[in-house]
Predict the structure of Phospholipid-transporting ATPase.
Amino acid sequence: MSGTNPFASSKNRLRVKRRSRPYTAGSDDEDYDEDCLDTIPLMCGDSFEMDDENDRLVKERRRRRSQYRSIGYFLSEGWINLCTGCFCKLFSKCRRNRALKPRTVYIGMARGAPEKHPRNVIRNQKYSIISFIPKVLFDQFSIFLNLYFLVMALSQLIPAVRVGYLYTYWAPLGFVLFVTMVREAIDDWRRYRRDKEANSQMYRRLTRDGFNKVPSSDIQVGDLILVDKNQRVPADMVFLRTTEQNGTCFVRTDQMDGETDWKLRLAVQTTQRLPNNVDILDITANVYAEKPQKDIYNFVGTFTRTDGSTVEDSLSVENTLWANTVVASGTALGVVVYTGCETRSVMNTSQPHSKIGTVDLEINTLTKLLFSAVIILSLLMMILKGFGGPWYRYLFRFILLFSYIIPISLRVNLDMGKAWYSWVIQRDKDMPGTTVRTTTIPEELGRITYLLSDKTGTLTQNEMIFKKLHLGTVSYSTDTADEIMSHLKTAYSQQQQGSTPSATPTRASGPVRRTVVTRVFEAVRAIALCHNVTPVYEEGANGDVANSPEADQHSQQLVSYQASSPDEVALVAWTESVGLTLLSRDLSSMQLRTPTGVCVNYTILQVFPFTSEAKRMGIILKEEETGEIIFYLKGADAVMQTIVQYNDWLEEECGNMAREGLRTLVVAKKVLTEEQYQDFESRYNQAKLSLQDRSARVQGVVESLEREMELLCMTGVEDRLQDNVRPTLELLRNAGIKVWMLTGDKLETAICIAKSSKLVSRTHDVHVLNRVTDRGQAHLELNALRRKNDAALVISGDSLQVCLKYYEHEFVELACLCPAVVVCRCSPTQKADIVKLLKSHTGKRTCAIGDGGNDVSMIQAADAGVGIVGKEGKQASLAADFSITQFSHLGRLLLVHGRNSYKRSASLSQFVIHRGLIITTMQVVFCSIFYFASVNLFPGFLIVGYATVYTMYPVFSLVLDKDVSPEIAMTYPELYKDLTKGRSLSFKTFFIWVLISIYQGGIIMYGALLLFEEEFIHVVSITFSALILTELLMVGLTVRTWHWLMVVAQIFSLGVYIASLAFFKDYFDSAFLQTWDFIWKVLVITCVSCIPLYVLKYLRKRFSPPVYSKLTP
């Protein structure tokens, strides 16, 4: 590229930096073109700010890199990460993971060198018996808060620095560790039981002695395993034989790729032609399989038989049975090629990890800040006291005295609060069947910015329903099916009487205007014939079925349709409902039963399957009775408009159906003469034998037929949505949550569901990113996306991979600006990678929701994973943090329970910190007045009582508080936007509580000393009593909505304290407590410490009320 770049002068454009990569040989021109790409600016903004108003304590991940080199980071948690990294590297070196490589599996009489392969076991456990205690302790003490308490507790074993009783330090720490260990043990035991159930499933293995039953865990590479109908495939296998006569079977892959379409699998022809299964043991053959990899859509292998003449068959993904798929028809015999961790399903599943909530990270940050305050206060006291004598001992005693600033009850209260939130979620009557499987992160539900959703089974019900048939001048729906049945009976009755309604008469002047009967007949027959559907019959209860004619047998049996597309199943099921039934189909023939009971046979001459590039499928049939050859074609309206004859209604009606959320297909036909077909067949076979550009030549020959075809009809099929999906998505959108749909389905299907579910609103354009394969195409497409304003993005998984390879940051920036993003043809690993990408680039909280096994990796990678118990099983539900029964429950889960959990945890944690700050302030004042003596102000028992029985219940009752009612939270979802900014627990709110604590602690301590008269024990009585009353009143100041249990907690705690005054005579002077002197001093000090705060709260509520104060449901 030469000359001046027209975009170079733009100040807001970003110059693309070239990524370093290994040099590859190529022409100078190609290298020059690559260099030129680096000089073309990708039109992105200079910054990547997602939200200006952010008060969160945890920095965004992309801004935290600089702190990794700081000394503070190393002293706080860097040394832990360093030790962990060194241990993992050492462990990996010792373990020496075996490199993945291709293998040859021998069958029958063939023999080869033995190879070691992993066991075929499923293991989702996090611990073993040996590693349980070390791992749990390591995880717990990697948190700064717990490590701090451990050091403080260990220091009390040294008599010289002991400042209290051992139980005041060890009991709370032991309680926290015990609760954590019990919770982790229960969760891991449940995982062990699920793994054991899966590993102990029995299968039949073919041996010389017949079939032997073996558990799934004992299956090895090279075993011949027979899988029955509706049984899960235990390992990755090559498909050798089936009981189906045509050598094919269908498998359900919903747990693998999320698609409920049944996939057709082909048995190896060499083994399928053997008389029976046992004969496989007498042949000499081998299977070559590529090295294990994640790609579930491709497979490269060969089957070679060497006894006699060598026969070699190429193997593709159509000859495989992947683990975790389910055989849907007949039985399948296969040879195992991959086991255990080398199977496709395991390689596409990420290992679960412990999730830590944002609130816990923010508390950890505040803990470090408080620890710094303890060190500074202790050093200040030593400076004022002087460094004479054993100063280090005094310094450590000061650190211990001020350690109450970080109360260990904080962890206890937060863990108990999380358990309470989880219990409330499960007891919500508006969300029946909801289960909380991870009780450590309920607050994350109140901080979600991105929701990543699966399509099939999550937004939809996996039910395709035929809705509309349009013939141009007349339209039929399910309500008018009786008219179609009447027209079909009329047409077939005329055909039996000698008339031929199926013919296509022509005149010299142009086409004949057809009657409605003929047009309906042609359209319905085309729908019944143009597909890849195979009927599968199950014998009914009638025992005389076998003695009946074949057509009668079919009428007395239960039928289910199998196809690679649910749309085709819905269309064929509809033709059956109007009287034209598909009786049978194999590779070369098809049979229909007409409404008059006559069976019509067709010979299948050619089938052109659907591809994402062609966006259409076709079939050439020959009716055996009349000899008529017909070419049927159906596909997307955008493609078919250029193929069919001119018309004035197709484009308009397609738009109307799309607005109704229907998936449209245009159906056309062309009658061929015998000579025309023979000419086509000759050219078609010749194109298939060409060695160069085979696919292009084959497509060109097929396209020679696709000209001036007769438009028959247009169909509309509805993929039924889950209940209340549209209002739920609108609710989430209004709450500021951006929804991304990640699906393994086709592009057209994904766009249709995005529109019908209102994921993409009517005001938004849809920008489909064209398929890209290299850096230059990705550059151009991203520039085109940048020019789109407020357009939803639709991209395929392959194109996404290319864009992320070269322009990761730029793509994420552009995608995050889109109102919605749809990723189609997305593998399970890609789903998880997208979640991690959003987390690392934006620093926002993500939530993933799905219902299939292919969604597990995405669910586990997200900050909050939600699983739906659906038709695809419970795998996603069991792996998720939260399990719900309907997608519509997600709105209440986030907006109500997420809000309450976050707000309550923020209030609870800050109040517990305030409780420690105020008593530390009093201790500092006491030490500074009494000549910097490192002695306790209150005895150890009073300190323990202060944090437990005296204030625990009122403080913990804050978990019942709520700022708005559930009705208001659901009516005004915009309130949720404020939660993502982290303002409820921020440095601002923290320092406000610090100031309140310093003020109240100083007032209580200086007030008591000012009113001090005789004995020191009176100071303890006054200050401690005022402290208890202040804390109880501060709980009332914090509460926004009173609950009757809060009042009970306040009265109970006050009563317990008053009762304890009469029993602890060693700590209190009972005679002084009965005097008015004690009472008025305590009341005055308490009023001075609390009344100004109540006045400030009233003024703020009066002149600066919260936004939700005037809202009504």
User: Anything to note?
Assistant: Residues 14 and 44 are 6 Å apart (CA to CA). The mean pLDDT is 82. The longest strand covers residues 710-721.
